[in-house]
Write a structure and sequence with these properties.
Mean pLDDT: 82
Membrane topology: Multi-pass membrane protein
Low-confidence stretches: none
Strand content: 5-15%
Number of helices: 9
Protein name: Magnesium and cobalt transporter CorA
CATH superfamily of the domain at 1-135: CorA soluble domain-like
Structural class: alpha+beta
Function: Mediates influx of magnesium ions. Alternates between open and closed states. Activated by low cytoplasmic Mg(2+) levels. Inactive when cytoplasmic Mg(2+) levels are high.
GO molecular function, one term: magnesium ion binding
Distance between the termini: 77 Å
Catalytic activity: Mg(2+)(in) = Mg(2+)(out)
């Protein structure tokens, strides 16, 4: 699909018409190989486009720029990503479908053409709108993840000793944030390379549009950084709560051990098999040991209570 960027978005066929003026096209990789001569594309560009290992990188040549984008879908961040190549020159913008299983990239391209204001249809604006369509599902990413982390934070303070799934859930969130952070970071590099305009394919006015796109991606990246810091703070809070809970348990054990240590001494003392132990034959010996044991427990509890240890 090729269209002239005029008021009517006139469709053109590069097989029968010569491409003049600003043109945008969405093309599959196989079609690109067939049309490379008619489109006047550098053979080196075809070789670069076939290198599917590239990820969100942009190469700059004398009269064009080319990059590959691996698209992250918010619905399933870890699924196999669609891959789109972008060819940008003064008069030609190509979105090259390398992998597009759900046709999301093609739909984004079509929406970019239709939603751009007629008087503003040029390659930078179409490119800007195309990127916005690709990442429009990311608009609510900050609030979505903030809500998830906030819910986990509430659980930290409510029932930490019972929450066995906390670590796995927080780990999943961190993995998703790390993936998005890497994605936005690479997109920032992509946009900054365009904004540097080393091959001078954009005018000063058009560079303003590219800079707006770069700032949008930077803002998304900044939001992810904030969320990562938030999740790290939550992990620290969780660990602090675990330590506090463990300290409480250890304090209880310490109190019990301290109280019963004198009783253990009494048991050990009178458990010795000596012949001459007057208390053993004393009429009130048994009741005295009982009273002594109770007194030790009561005094121990009172002392710990006074020291606010229980």
């Amino acid at each position: 699909m090729f269209v002239k960027l005029d008021a009517e978005l006139t469709p053109i066929d590069p097989r029968t018409e010569k491409i003049t003026g600003p043109v945008a096209g969405y093309i599959r990789f196989k079609e690109l190989i067939e049309l490379q001569g008619l489109l006047g594309l550098d053979p080196l560009f075809i070789e670069q486009c076939s290198d599917f290992s590239q990820q969100n990188t942009l190469g700059v040549w004398e009269d064009y720029s080319f990059g590959v984008i691996n698209i992250v879908e918010m619905e399933n961040i870890f699924k196999d990503r669609d891959t789109i190549g972008l060819y940008i020159s003064k008069n030609l913008f190509l979105a090259i479908e390398i992998i597009d299983k759900d046709y999301s990239a093609q739909k984004a391209f079509e929406a970019a053409l239709q939603q751009t204001i007629v008087r503003e249809r040029n390659i930078p604006r179409i490119l800007n709108r195309f990127f916005k369509e690709l990442i429009k599902s990311h608009a609510g990413v900050y609030y979505r993840f903030r809500k998830k982390i906030s819910e986990l934070e509430m659980r930290v303070w409510e029932k930490i000793e019972e929450d066995s799934n906390f670590e796995s859930e927080l780990s999943n969130i961190n993995n998703e944030l790390l993936t998005l952070f890497s994605y936005y970071d690479q997109l920032e590099d992509f946009c900054q390379e365009l904004a540097e305009n080393e091959n001078e394919i954009f005018t000063e006015e058009e560079l303003t549009i590219i800079n707006l796109l770069s700032k949008r991606v930077e803002r998304y990246g900044a939001n992810i950084r904030i969320l990562r810091e938030y999740s790290n703070q939550l992990r620290e809070s969780y660990q602090a709560q675990l330590d506090l809970h463990l300290n409480k348990i250890m304090k209880i054990f310490t109190v019990v051990t301290t109280i019963f240590l004198p009783l253990t001494l009494v048991v050990g003392w009178y458990g010795m098999n000596f012949t001459h132990m007057p208390e053993l034959s004393w009429e009130y010996g048994y009741i005295t040991v009982i009273i002594l044991s109770i007194a030790i427990v009561v005094l121990g509890l009172c002392w710990f209570k006074k020291k606010k240890l229980i």
